[in-house]
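Weekend entry, working from home. Most of the wet-lab plans are on hold until the incubator is repaired, so I used the time to fold the two sequences that have been sitting in the queue since the last round of cloning. Logging both here for the record. First:
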Amino acid sequence: MNLLTDDWIPVEIAGTQRRISLQTLLCEDPDCTIKTFRDDMELATLQLLVCLVQVVFMPDDKKSLKHRWQTPLTVSEYQDGIAGYLDWFDLLHPETPFMQTAGVTPEKGDKNWASLQKLFMGLPEKSSTSPTSSAFFDTPDEITAIPIGDAAIALFQQATNGFSLGGVGYSVGLKGSMPLTTLVVSESLRKSIWCNVLSQEFIEPFGILDAPIPEPTWITPPHSRFAEEQAHHIGLARGLFWQPAKVKLALCNGLVTGFYKEAGTCTVKGYWLHPHTPIDILRLHANAPKEKPYLSGQGNQPLWGQMLSYFYSAENIRTLDINRGGYSSALVVQQYQALWRGCSIKLAVGGYIKGGSAESLAGRKHELYSLSSGWDTKIPEVDRLIKIGLNTQQKLDTAIRKFADLAETNFKDRRDGKLKQQTGKEGHFRKNLRNKAKQQYFDNSETIMHSILRNLAFDDIADYQTRFSKLAEQVFEQVISPYEHEDKMLEPVLASRQYLANMLNKLNKSREGVTA
């Protein structure tokens, strides 16, 4: 099964799900959307397609890129382009299978066999007792067999955006554990792909095209050319399809049923400039070996909390404050900003959220953010909007803490006429209420944020504050509603409700009269 020739791309056309080839997509430009069984796999499919086209059909310059975006490839152009790459992207190749190691074989008793679930972040698996392996689903038999094309997507996603396949003895991907992915979305799937393909002219200054090892890891294994492989050794195709693990898919009746793995670490020194992930400039300059500079999702805030880093470069952000800590948008966004100046932008942002440890999973987040034309000049507005949303949540959190403290005082502190001893630790009651309120606020804030971003303007700042304030009030009422009819809770409810109203009123008044 070859990613360059076979029908493997899962799409929906006119309400019908089917699979098409990359040639059909790039040459015929069908009216279709990616359709998989999970949102993270849809973004992974788009990223995989972008990487394939980036390696095989990289345009020379911005003029060529715009032509490719506007006009589908001819069949002859496509066939000529893939001729030298067919062996790279064959999942069943006897010597160099795509993102696999041909030499990995079953051990006695299949001790090195792993279930398909391990390739899908958050799915439970029979061979694991980790809490992460049951983060989203209940049964280990959720997926038992998948088409080879779906396995290619899962292999790519796990290696590029997941964590290691087995903890100690296995390495994470080139970007570390669970980095965010940001990709531009255009008016069709074909055009979306080209919007995220960098031209040779754009990428040349970064030195990636001159790296001494251009081949992917299943062609030239890590550390086979250099005893200590470093980031500057890694070429474009090698970096985009970096596979740190030694795995081999297991098939039965043409379907993938699991895979075999072999322990072995694969470390890379330095920083490789991945074009699809924003960068934390401070972490980059710190140059800490264990701290990758790639931006990742945060469990304590929504995706929009880091929005400046998705759309703007460090130079853009420093126009707000010369001393401000910097992030830099992904290269694909920087190229889009330069090439499609003045146009609106839709940006797909997604990734996994780390749990309490580096190799644990707390959740996954995926959003599509739209900014109207002129977005590249609206840094102050976006910054102000983010602060409004986060500050309002902080006021809600303060009110919830006040309610919980008053409630606990009524029920515990005065019991037997003795004050409760303060331990310095947050009680379960308050912690659970705060987490519930925060989750509800952030979940519902995405809809508000999306509607505002489509027509962002300084003149409407007061209205934006009002909308977030109303959300905070609604969430507060939902969280305390189970307690408001209890006699001993009346005082905590009334006091904390008024406390929230006063704080929000101050925020609302502070935004009134704010204009550009």
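Second, folded right after the first finished:
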Amino acid sequence: MWAVAILTILLSVLLLSALSAAAVAKATATPKSAPQTCTIAGQVVDSHGKGIAGAKVTLYNMTIIEGKTFDTGLTTVEHNPQYTSSGDKAGYYEFTGVPPGTYDIIVDVNGMRYPEIKQVHEGTLIVDFEISPSGGHQVTTSTPGPSSRPATSEPVVTVIPAPSIPEEKQGNDDPFILRAGLGVLIIIQFIIACVALWIVMTRRL
């Protein structure tokens, strides 16, 4: 009888310790990595290659169904739509934090709209627009390395600030505190086991 009581108490302590360790491991699990995003950037120029400052660039998210594209609305990125920059980097635009997918890039210049549908999967996609006086446009697309294009550090004018994407709540408990709490819990369980064992032995005597 006495041996059975001791074995029961020890098994209870081990079970509670295992459950506590599992709870701490779940709370301190490595947060999920943020979803991969891309960058769509470029320059809007006239037929002489001069940057057109103030051209409005809008990025629309598209979906392709049976070979046809459908507009799903503005993608959730900052500064969408935006105006092209001025100064030394006249005519440049840049969208960051763009989820991979198909997009309709629309440039508005002097009341004329110039659309171009492009797909972006990773990294940076450069889409340059050349606007001709006759109302047409040509598009040049490239995917350069990180240092092959000047940085678009000029500020852009935000027309419609996109709502911020709510971040998925991650476990932010301090792992040290959790481990310390687990240690205290195990000690308490050990004390309870000792007290229970003492009670059993006292009654037996």
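Plan for Monday: verify the second prediction. The chain has a mean pLDDT of 74.
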